[in-house]
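Example record

One chain of 366 residues, shown exactly as stored in the release files.
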Amino acid sequence: MNDKKKPDLNSAMPVIFGILAMAVVIVVSVVIIHGNLLGQPDPTPAPEPDPEPTPVLDEDFESLPEPIIEENVPDKGTAFNDFEHLSTYFNVDIEDYDFEEYSYLLFYYEYDECSLENIKPTKYTVNDTYGEIAIDISYDGGCGVCVPQRDYWLLRIPKTTVQYKLVFNYIRLSSGDCDDDPYVVKKPIIYLYPTKTIDVSVKLAHPELLTSSYPRYTDGWQVTAEPSGKLTDRTTGRELYSLYWEGTNRNAKMHSDGFVIKGSDTSDFLEEKLALLGLTDREAEEFIIYWLPVLEQNNYNYIRFETIAEINSYMPLEINPNPDTLIRVIMDYKPLETPIEVTEQKITTPTRTGFTVVEWGGTQIK
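Predicted structure tokens for this chain:
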């Protein structure tokens, strides 16, 4: 006789259903995870990334020959919409039908082929936010100095493209194997002293000659300047006290005039001459702090201050609004073992009035 009770299935049913429900949840979870690992779409869509700029091929750039009459060449950014207009200035082989869908923007740049080698435009991007077409121009650094030359180019763009301002970004791909390049002007910094707080645009006429800059130079510096000399970068909001650049200087050479100064007498000499050149005590102090360790270690130094006309010949400044007073002090120097005879350079002291801009730097002659 079997005394065991039969199992009560009714009482066990809730437990069974609970186990089955847990199993279903586990299986579904595994399937979702497995599907995602296999690359199947997640039911929750990820946020879309910002679109990358469309790369533009080199074929959008067309190198131009020398213009028919250089003095008649129109401004950078001029759009040619038909062959007849373009052929007025250049002898080119572009066909008439190319103008059905495209316009051609003119641009050009000056450079020294000895210090800037293999220079060419590589790509462009359209920035709708700032209303700009940015053109990247790459080059390899070289050594030496040659006569500057100008290259002319066309940029092919769809006729639907809105006319924007051209901006140039110069990209150094490599540096020349030079023995302490003697043609770089060191540490030029620019101070701005308006009579009231104003927005100022400062541009270097030949940015292709730059080797370094801060803030990073693109199509000029845009700052808010205060009478104290305080600057605010309008792009980043960063507070500055000056604008800095370095670049190629073709004028660093010996002249018949100048000064020959003992290394040990450098500080006294600079204090006197910088005051005559129009620098304040604060500006002169910054100049001396930078250059004193370089100059006083030599037995003697030949020193000459470039005239503003000489400085403007290789790096004109374009400042808007125009300053009332512009002081540019670029010192060329050459270390000497023994003194040499030179005619003492005559210095004219400027009068600082109104909106004043001051710049200083120096170059070693070798």
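Notes: The first helix runs from residue 9 to 37.
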